[in-house]
Amino acid sequence: DQQVKQNSPSLSVQEGRISILNCDYTNSMFDYFLWYKKYPAEGPTFLISISSIKDKNEDGRFTVFLNKSAKHLSLHIVPSQPGDSAVYFCAATLGAQKLVFGQGTRLTINP
Amino acid sequence: DSGVTQTPKHLITATGQRVTLRCSPRSGDLSVYWYQQSLDQGLQFLIQYYNGEERAKGNILERFSAQQFPDLHSELNLSSLELGDSALYFCASSPRQGGYYGYTFGSGTRLTVV
């Protein structure tokens, strides 16, 4: 049972444009969502998070939007830079439980 | 350097063998989580320890086991290895239980079973 889904395995965006990565979840009880970024040969690193009581959280070029009614969240990167090329994982949690991760989306920023 | 140390970085072994993966959590972190990432798959949760005690189990096979020692380092034991066990194995740590605090991941152990 895949509770967190990233339906796009890959995304290609031109440098300077907006990158939008999407994530859907099925468990309406999740109350905290996170995005992780992973480079090859490295472990995932925390990028940005959002509580379920909010619908937007912004940190520099990164903004996460949460639509609870649609059980959907998205990560916007503006403007996209070559160093943003990586695999992005969406994750969700409830209370003291473990993080549940999506399958990841490989983002490629083209010059 | 994330502060979470995983050894070895790479491991090649034959089917039927047994291996041990080691993880040292970030200083001060009490929770250790093990995840498996197979080809084209997301991060699949295997098991969690908190201050030496098992707290949650995920999709961990009976051939796999883990423990967390008094110094808080953790080991993941994989036995009777099969080709399908080839994957990246990540360890993560957090100060307390749960995802609110975020995880700090190690760089992983790449296991290849031949």
Write up what this structure looks like.
The complex is a heterodimer of chains A (111) and B (114). Chain A is 0% helix and 54% strand. Chain A has strands at 4-5, 10-14, 19-25, 32-38, 45-51, 56-59, 62-67, 72-77, 86-93, 100-101, 105-110. Chain A is globular, with a radius of gyration of 13 Å. The model of chain A has no long low-confidence stretch (mean pLDDT 94). Chain B is mainly β and 114 residues long. Chain B is globular and about 35 Å long. Chain A binds chain B through residues 4, 6, 9, 32, 34, 36, 41-46, 49, 89, 91-104, and chain B through 2, 4, 33, 35, 40-45, 48, 56, 58, 90, 92, 96-100, 102-108.
Could you provide a short overview of the structure?
The complex is a heterodimer of chains A (111) and B (114). Chain A is mainly beta and 111 residues long. In chain A, 0% of the residues lie in helices and 54% in strands.
Write the layout of secondary structure elements.
The complex is a heterodimer of chains A (111) and B (114).
Chain A (H helix, E strand, L loop, with lengths): L3 E2 L4 E5 L4 E7 L6 E7 L6 E7 L4 E4 L2 E6 L4 E6 L8 E8 L6 E2 L3 E6 L1
Chain B lengths: L4 E3 L2 E4 L5 E6 L6 E7 L5 E8 L2 E5 L6 E5 L5 E5 L8 E8 L9 E2 L3 E5 L1
Parallel strand pairs in B: 2-11
Antiparallel strand pairs in B: 1-3, 3-8, 4-5, 4-9, 5-6, 7-8, 9-10, 9-11
